[in-house]
Structure formats: C-alpha cells, structure tokens
Amino acid sequence: MTMDVRKAHVSTASPSTKEGRLNWISGIKGEFKKITWTSREELRAYTKIVVGATLVIGLGIYVLDLLVQGALSGLGSFVRAIIG
Predict the structure, then answer these.
(1) The domain containing residue 66 runs over which residues?
(2) How much is the pTM?
(3) Helix (H, G, I), strand (E, B) or coil at 14
(4) Which of 49, 12, 14, 10 minimizes the C-alpha distance to 27?
C-alpha cells in the first residue's frame, strides 16, 4: 500500500509583507474550496441518528442505574434483617 505525500506550498514571501499576507489569504481561500460540505438532508439524517443514539444510550444507563440501585437497596435490607 502506498501513501501519497503532498508537500505544502511554502511561500517565499514574508508574512509581514503585503504580498505575504495576500498569499496567505489566497491559500486559505484555496483550502476552503477543497472542503466538501454535507448537504442539508445528510445533516438532518446524521442529527437524527445522533439524537436517537443519545436517547437510547441515556435510557439504557437510566435502567441500569435503577437495577443497581434496587440491588443495593435489597442488599441493604437483607443485611439489616440479618444483623437486626
């Protein structure tokens, strides 16, 4: 498996010069053009998945907490019954 190695374009102009700042800004604009933004439909679908998964996991943790709380309460009652 080979990996493509891309070298960043290094400007020879100093960032403190007007030419350097313009190169820097044009570089930023170029990087923004490379970004692939999600569509509105994809964003809605992914949001629904995240919210749904969060609710399901939260509900699971709540139920597990109730089970542990009940088990510890039962154990405490059992120990009090034995000890008196």
Answers:
(1) 18-83
(2) 0.56
(3) coil
(4) 10
For residue 4, give the 3-state DSSP assignment: coil
Residue 17 φ then ψ, to 5° = -95, 160
Token readout for 23 is 């190169």
User: Is 8 a domain residue?
Assistant: no
CA 63 to chain centre: 25
For residue 13, is it within any domain? no
Contact residues for 19 (Cβ-Cβ < 8 A; gap 6+): 13
**pLDDT tens string 5-63:** 565 555 555 667 888 888 889 999 999 999 998 999 999 999 999 999 999 999 999 99
Residue with tokens 């000890």: 83
d(CA 70, CA 62): 12
As separate numbers, helices (DSSP H) first and strands (DSSP E) second, the chain gives 2, 0
Q: Which residue in the block uniquely carries the two structure tokens 């542990």? A: 68
